Amino acid sequence: MQDGALKNIKGQVARILLEHAKDGTDGHHPLTHRTMATMLNTGWDKIYLSLKSLHEEGAIIIDRNRIIIKSELLQKLAGAAEGLGKNGG
């Protein structure tokens, strides 16, 4: 059950990153672990683990204080998590 919950959070983090990239701020409105945790009503440690997993899967590149998005793969992961939520996963 915990793996499924973390997978769902990871997908939600992916969606937040994609939406943030689309908002046109060009990184001038930074997202922190705590901000994303508040948005998802979870702990910052779950955000950290999600970002780490997304990095390991190649969906994002973490470079100092910025995240470089690999849009196609990140969208796929975000969509997969959306499907989990609809099925009660």
Ends distance = 9 Å
CATH topology: Arc Repressor Mutant, subunit A
Number of helices: 4
**Biggest sheet architecture:** 2 strands, antiparallel
Can you give the mean pLDDT?
A: 82
Query: What is the element string, with H for helices and E for strands?
Result: HHHEEH
Query: Level of helix content?
Result: 55-70%
CATH class annotation = Mainly Alpha
List the helices and strands and how they pair.
Elements: H1 2-22, H2 33-40, H3 44-56, E1 60-63, E2 66-69, H4 71-86
Antiparallel strand pairs: 1-2
Structure explained in plain terms:
Helices cover 65% and strands 9% of the residues. It has 89 residues and is mainly α. The protein has one domain (2-86): Orthogonal Bundle (Arc Repressor Mutant, subunit A), CATH 1.10.10.10. A two-stranded antiparallel sheet has the order 1-2. β1 (60-63) and β2 (66-69) form a beta hairpin. The model is unreliable at 85-89 (pLDDT under 50).
Key descriptive features of the protein:
mainly alpha; two-stranded antiparallel sheet; 4 helices; 9% strand; globular; disordered C terminus
How would you summarize this macromolecular structure in one to three sentences?
This protein is mainly alpha-helical and 89 residues long. The protein is 65% helix and 9% strand. Helix 1 packs across helix 4 and helix 2 crosses helix 3.
